[in-house]
Amino acid sequence: GAEGSTLMSYFSKNQIQTLKPKITFSTLRDLQCPVLQSNDLQGKPEESCSTEELFEWLGAVLNQVSLDNKSSSFLSTYCCPEPNTVVEKAFLCTITGFIIPEKIIQLLEQLCCYFGEPKLAHWLTLTVHGFADSPVSWRESEHGFHKGGENLYNFVIFRNLDYWLQMAVGAHDDCPP
């Protein structure tokens, strides 16, 4: 009807374009990384770190928080959990935009190439973060913003293709079973 044609003329005049996801790359040098064992979710003293310790460390790395526990730092005295190892070069890629599940599966498949020669990564992560003020979350519940709007999941994939799946949602949200 008339309403549809009015909308069409509005969009053609204002040249609405498809927004492409924004991609940023950075290389982190001499990065302290937790030691992980795929079959040990709880971690063991002097052998490996737990899933919770990894999740906290990942948050610090993604937010570019220093890991050196300096008492003079007003921002953070966080340090990498023990045991850890220094990785000469870690690669961080951030993609911001609306990304469909099929693309996330493609990204996971491409990331697994880092287990082959000559890269030989021990493990890698892929974090998918929903917008904090997204109206929906998992299952049938509305997404409760409340304090932080947490709404994310994280894959940790190991060289033997075992993986961990971590999920974080706000206190008032449903989580998948």
From TrEMBL:
<protein>
    <submittedName>
        <fullName>RPP40 protein</fullName>
    </submittedName>
</protein>
<dbReference type="GO" id="GO:0001682">
    <property type="term" value="P:tRNA 5'-leader removal"/>
</dbReference>
<dbReference type="InterPro" id="IPR013893">
    <property type="entry name" value="RNase_P_Rpp40"/>
</dbReference>
<dbReference type="GO" id="GO:0004526">
    <property type="term" value="F:ribonuclease P activity"/>
</dbReference>
<dbReference type="GO" id="GO:0000447">
    <property type="term" value="P:endonucleolytic cleavage in ITS1 to separate SSU-rRNA from 5.8S rRNA and LSU-rRNA from tricistronic rRNA transcript (SSU-rRNA, 5.8S rRNA, LSU-rRNA)"/>
</dbReference>
<dbReference type="Pfam" id="PF08584">
    <property type="entry name" value="Ribonuc_P_40"/>
</dbReference>
<dbReference type="GO" id="GO:0000172">
    <property type="term" value="C:ribonuclease MRP complex"/>
</dbReference>
<dbReference type="GO" id="GO:0030681">
    <property type="term" value="C:multimeric ribonuclease P complex"/>
</dbReference>
<dbReference type="GO" id="GO:0000171">
    <property type="term" value="F:ribonuclease MRP activity"/>
</dbReference>
